[in-house]
Specification:
Length: about 130
């Protein structure tokens, strides 16, 4: 089965963002993919408030990203941690898709690939709007 990297907020509202990430993971699984959600895994034993441990968790998640087929952005905003993940996805030339969670699963909004004529910085700062 192909792996999908779930890129979604975590830090600012941990309880709500965890629920959203869990729902996204379940929806991805129901679509026949393996969800890779590093912020649900590494935060179980790394301290999100310790910058060194946070950086280690993000770097480890990016390492996992290398085995993924695509990156799916969940939510309506890009956080600092997500920016790092999206920059890594661009470097790895992985397809990036914007998604919305629905009651019955995930709805794909649009796809962004490295071949488009906008930079990732423009995408992260300007284009990501629902």
């Amino acid at each position: 089965m192909d792996k999908i990297f779930i890129c979604s907020p975590y830090r600012d509202n941990i309880q709500t963002n965890t629920e959203i990430a869990l729902k996204a993971a379940k929806a991805v699984m129901k679509l026949g993919y393996i969800p890779i959600v590093p912020h649900l895994y590494f935060t179980r034993f790394l301290d999100e408030d310790n910058q060194k441990e946070r950086d280690l968790g993000i770097a480890s998640g990016i390492d996992w990203m290398q085995s993924c087929k695509e990156i799916w952005i969940i939510g309506n905003r890009i956080t600092e941690g997500m920016k790092l993940e999206l920059q890594a996805a661009q470097n790895l030339k992985l397809p990036i898709k914007k998604c919305l969670l629905k009651n019955d699963g995930i709805k794909m909004i649009s796809a962004l690939t490295i071949t488009e004529k906008i930079s990732m910085a423009d995408y992260v700062n300007n284009v990501y709007k629902f």
